[in-house]
Specification:
DNA polymerase, domain 1, Rossmann fold, globular, alpha/beta, binds magnesium ion, binds xylulose-1,5-bisphosphate
């Protein structure tokens, strides 16, 4: 059964804010040097490592793929766990000092959706505290409380591109996939959403993801856009004459995906 659009499900890293290159990456590097490790993730290397979602999973992949001779005195899981706690603390400090703003158009679209009574949710791979701190630093008091569901990090057994986090969000919202639109920035996020049966997908590419393959997404844009700025660019799909991503465009995309009027 099809319904109208009832909920927006947002990714966090790359979608709400461009966090990876100048947020997560330097935090990992600071944690490595504080632990006396000679690991360093350049911007280029980090782009490759982003194929693996989840910071702990990414570190394990790095050791296996790039440092096969690394000898760990104790338990590798314990080392990675400790590095990740330190990395999270460093990253949170960066967020607390307002170091990573929301992307253009994010707050505008959230305000419009909330005013229209749409339900809001988050489906992300990152650590829950990172989401809280990002939203707390935004210029909108109580922004976190606008989200009825915030599903994050290790709450599910398998991270994106597995569908688990989106399945959890749908279960907590008690909505069918056909009532929702997903806003993502990465191929892993698109694969995860599609695998959960979510077909209405908008991609706002981020600094690391613009060359990825977003087959299955209804629309791929460079940003959500602001009214007083230059118009946005569609990299795939139809803007239906819109100069930015607003609720009317999301309703149109949703209707196109599910074959009924907006
Ligand atoms: C985000 C991630 C996260 C962050 C780091 O992917 O993969 O792991 O890079 O956060 P997505 P943690 O945007 O697809 O959810 O270190 O807290 O895992
Ligand atoms: Mg992302």
């Amino acid at each position: 059964m099809t319904t109208g659009l009832l909920a927006l499900i947002f990714d966090v890293d790359g979608t709400l804010a461009d966090t990876e290159r100048d947020g997560h990456r330097p935090a990992f590097n600071s944690a490595f040097s504080a632990a006396g490790l000679d690991w360093h993730w350049s911007e280029e290397c980090y782009g490759e490592l982003l194929a693996v979602t989840g910071g702990k999973e990414r570190m394990r992949h790095y050791v296996q793929r790039y440092r096969p001779d690394f000898h760990c005195d104790g338990d590798l899981d314990a080392l990675i766990g400790g590095l990740h706690r330190r990395k999270t603390a460093i990253y949170l400090e960066r967020l607390r000092t307002g170091g990573i703003p929301l992307r253009p158009g994010v707050l505008r679209l959230l305000r419009e959706a909330r005013a229209a009574g749409l339900r809001l949710a988050i489906a992300t791979t990152t650590t829950p505290e990172n989401v809280s701190a990002l939203l707390a630093a935004a210029p909108e008091p109580e922004l976190a409380a606008w989200f009825e569901v915030i599903a994050a990090g290790d709450i599910v057994p398998h991270k994106k591109p597995a569908p688990d986090i989106f399945n959890l969000v749908l279960a907590q919202l008690q909505l069918p996939a056909s009532a929702c639109i997903v806003i993502e920035d990465s191929d892993n996020g698109v694969c995860a959403a599609l695998a959960a049966g979510l077909r209405a997908l908008l991609v706002t590419v981020s600094s690391y993801t613009h060359d990825q393959d977003f087959a299955g997404a209804a629309l791929v844009v460079d940003q959500l856009g602001e009214p007083d700025a230059a118009g946005i660019t569609a990299l795939a799909g139809d803007l239906h004459g819109h100069r930015l991503v607003d609720l009317a465009l999301l309703r149109q995309l949703h209707a196109d995906c599910y074959g009924f009027g907006p």
